Amino acid sequence: MKSLRRRLIILLVVSIVGVVGLATIVAIKVLGGPSPELSMGPVARQIQLMVQLVPGHVPGAGDAPVTVSDHPADGVEDQKHTRVLNHIMHELGLDVSAVVSRNVGRPGMVASVALPDNRWMIVDAPDFGPPRDAWFVLSGWITLIVLGATAVSIYFTAVLVRPLEMLEATVSKIGSDGVLATVPEEGSAEVRATAHALNQLSARLKTAMESRMRLVAAAGHDLRTPMTRMRLRAEFLDEDRDKWLHDLDELDRIADSAIRLVREEVNQDAVEPVDLAKLVREIAAEVRSLGHAVSTDHLDKVSIRAGSLGLRRALRNLIVNAATHGQGCSVSLAAAGDQAVLTIADSGPGIPPELLAKAFEPFFRVDPGRRQSVPGAGLGLAIAKEIIERYGGAITLENRTGGGLSQKVVFATVS
């Protein structure tokens, strides 16, 4: 019941059926015919006259055309009309009783009057009520009304919630660059207005993102000129020369990492099927050639859809990060249903649990004093996460039991 669509449908159906229900009650009152008192009054007076014409009841009336039987008429007793008819005959002073019955499949009613000599006088009684099958027709009519109200409610509810569905679909298609997909401005006035607002929002977001990337790229580029001048001057220093060069190297790595982060958002290579196991073997061999302790465990043969250059850069960052900070690492790849799970486990100190959520933030350092024992600007994980999520993957970090950090990357496989 939390769905707006369902609530609108139920509201419309209940409203329509409620109005039709009130109209039906009025129709039933009208179609129900007159009350038994109005229809049985003439019948009682007719019986009062006919009782006197029954042969043997009044002298000289033996040839009167009155139907007399040894038993009451067949049929189902109508208790309400029977009670009303007996009451009226009692008020008229008739010392007889009657039974009103209906014949199945035949219109009208029949009054069977009990005579003193154990015989029954049969008298036709009018029936001003609706035909018996009219209730079936009325039930069918109500059913059609309910079905029609449901269909109309579903249609108009779909029209009402279409702008919300458009908003939901558009938001679900937001890419890794944070820009909304263009929405066609067609349909009703409300739908067009919603689409136009979303397109305006998309354009403004794109402008803001491009401005941010230009700013970061320009800052990283412009930093290199004064750093180059500072490096040249540092060469002529006698005191603290190594410290100056060390700080300049760090600034240079930060500027270079910032520029590469912007390039990852702008220069996106084509998506194609990639043999993940083969790519992991190549990266592991490359990182080992650089002097890092990297081993590969069991690698299932799986393929995913991604950009080969971007994915190579992301996985290299993760493996180098684990090998550098974790005193070596092991890489394994397993196929789990329609997913490929890549696990990079190291033997380092891990990350404090309260800092795991911040590990993917730019320039993150586990050491709050930001002491840098190994080269790096703190953007490796941020760049890797950016690339992995662009290709529909997900990455999580968790501390291993007994020490070390486990980086787990999950991708959807392709057949």
Automatic annotation (TrEMBL):
Q: Which reaction does it catalyse?
A: ATP + protein L-histidine = ADP + protein N-phospho-L-histidine
EC main group: transferase
All copies of the HAMP domain together span 158-210
Write down the superkingdom of origin.
Bacteria
Query: What SMART domains does UniProt report for this protein, alphabetically?
Result: HAMP, HATPase_c
Q: Where would I find the Histidine kinase domain in this sequence?
A: 218-415
Topological relation to the membrane, as annotated? Multi-pass membrane protein
Q: InterPro entries from the entry?
A: 2C_sensor_his_kinase, HAMP_dom, HATPase_C_sf, HATPase_dom, His_kinase_dom, HisK_dim/P_dom, HisK_dim/P_sf, Sig_transdc_His_kin-like_C
Query: Its Enzyme Commission number?
Result: 2.7.13.3
Name the principal localization, coarsely classed.
Answer: membrane
Molecular function per GO: ATP binding; phosphorelay sensor kinase activity
What is the annotated localization of this protein?
Answer: Cell membrane
Please list every transmembrane segment annotated in the UniProt record, as residue ranges: 9-31, 134-156
Q: What is this protein called?
A: histidine kinase
* The organism of origin for this protein: Mesorhizobium waimense
